[in-house]
């Protein structure tokens, strides 16, 4: 018995480290999302679609994280020779399910931030944001679908003894690479768009830089997406990008928590549901855009 316990202890196992990492990320994402919602609700503001999609994204992240924890309990993180063959198929099945929900979290978190940008953009910028929304859903949606249609019957995905057929491995890798690259590009583009929208707005420079910094945090999610291509273990977990995107989408809404309500004079416009149905008393288009941006910058004050 002692020899068996000793041999088990000698087996390298990265599962516990993975478990701690994914739940730490989920906890940080929960903290930022909770602060985002509190920032609005505590000031009598109602939640809008970007908030709802971010909550849905977090729910998908928790499902994915939970499934990965189940996989760890089934020997995920151990070398192949140490994995219990009796539970291998079940572990593989849960791994595919975790990857699917991780992609859902990624899609919905990007959609949340894009919806926020729709509210403060106009003209070609607004049309471009719509383009990003549509193509992101198509590309990442295709990635999520590919997980379940690459083999038929689907059970062959996790059980090699099931008779059927699967796509060539190269095809699956190409689909995954395209999705990962596009996801990273979208994160960086969405992080840079606020500079186009806010830069020429006539507001306090400190407020402007603070808003730009807060709304550009998504660039870190983009960097994470590109780093995944290098297959570095420390960042290979699919939940990392989703968690960072949730955090990045929440940060712009937290600024009112750290600012005095008297820091700025009241806006000349007013907003219902934070930044929807904004009423302006400006005639100039650029000033109108400025008022719209100010509503977002001053959200929930």
Automatic annotation (TrEMBL):
Top-level division of the source organism's lineage: Eukaryota
Stretch forming the signal peptide: none
Any one Gene Ontology cellular component term annotated for this protein: membrane
Residue ranges occupied by any Rhodopsin domain in the UniProt entry: 35-259
Key words, A-Z: Membrane, Transmembrane, Transmembrane helix
Family matches, as InterPro entries: Rhodopsin_dom_fungi, SAT4-like
Topology class, membrane: Multi-pass membrane protein
Subcellular location: Membrane
Any single Pfam family the record assigns to this protein: Fung_rhodopsin
Family: Belongs to the SAT4 family.
Name of this chain's protein: Rhodopsin domain-containing protein
Record organism: Pseudallescheria apiosperma
